[in-house]
Amino acid sequence: MIIDAHCHVWPDHIAPQVLAQRPAGLDPRHDGTLDGLRRTMDEAGIDLAMTLAVATVAKNVARTNEFIGGVDRSRFIPFGTVHPDLPVAANLASLRDNGIGGVKLHPLFQGLSLADPAVHEILHGLAAEGIVVITHAGAGGDAQANDRGAPHHLRTIIDTVPGLRLIACHFGGYHRLDEAEQAVLGTGVHLETSWPPTLRGLDADRVREIIARHGASRIIYGSDWPMSDPATEIAAVRALGLPTADEEAILGGNLARLLGIAPLTHD
């Protein structure tokens, strides 16, 4: 089973507007729509994908969660949005009302900081509800935005929010990998593999060392669709030459276990 942990989607009429802005300075490889993602998954042999939705302002949280909560759950795993300008109870209610069991945080685009006590209060609430959190970590914007998602903030969250099931994108530090290695390797956080435009941009020996040090059981494949191409990223994981059991765990087994997904049976 292959599960992609990192797929951004938008309503059909919004996706072109967002991608025309070249998020994080990247050129999109795909169209950012649910239909486009389904086609990509079929072509790449992906069984399930976490569909991530992000509200950049508090007033859009409700409509964003309504959209993502309505995805086809036979292929998509909805990860909704929260915002620190809303009370914790309102954030949790929006997720609950739409049957959403995961949240995406994005310090670059939401203007929130992983060091903000208001964000930590939300994370305590999410942990208490058993909601899984995936967050951007590292660079991708200006200096101020990059600091909001700095890897050392992850370590504070890990140490102060007990019971939180946390996935850190980009091995815990996009273009801040030295800091990420110091801050999060060996902790209980799950590290996601995307590195747009491609994981092949990282030295393969370094990636293998990170996996060995952190433990393959806490590494999760993600592509960062539509900014990267999932088939290319799956091939990059396989090119690492890991033991078969580790490769299969990274490509889907670890995430299935984290999310409580039973193995799929194919007719």
Describe this structure in words.
Helix 4 packs parallel to helix 6 (117-129) and helix 8 (151-160) packs parallel to helix 9 (177-184). The longest helix is centred in the C-terminal third of the chain and has 16 residues, at 244-259. A five-stranded parallel β-sheet has the order 4-5-6-7-8. It has a three-stranded parallel β-sheet with strand order 1-2-3. The chain has twelve helices and eight strands. The chain is globular, with a radius of gyration of 17 Å. The chain is of the alpha/beta class. The mean pLDDT is 96. The two termini are 14 Å apart. It is 42% helix and 12% strand. It has helices spanning 15-20, 34-44, 61-69, 88-97, 107-110, 117-129, 143-148, 151-160, 177-184, 204-214, 230-238, 244-259; strands at residues 3-8, 48-52, 76-79, 102-105, 132-135, 166-168, 190-192, 219-220.
Q: Estimate the helix proportion, in percent.
A: 40-55%
| Structure summary, number of beta strands | 8
Average pLDDT, to the nearest integer?
96
Rg calc: 17 Å
Spatial order of the strands forming the largest sheet: 4-5-6-7-8
Basic shape:
globular
- Series of H and E elements: EHHEHEHEHHEHHEHEHEHH
DSSP helical segment count: 12
| Coarse structural class | alpha/beta
Largest sheet: 5 strands, parallel
Strand content: 5-15%
Span between termini: 14 Å
Unreliable spans are none
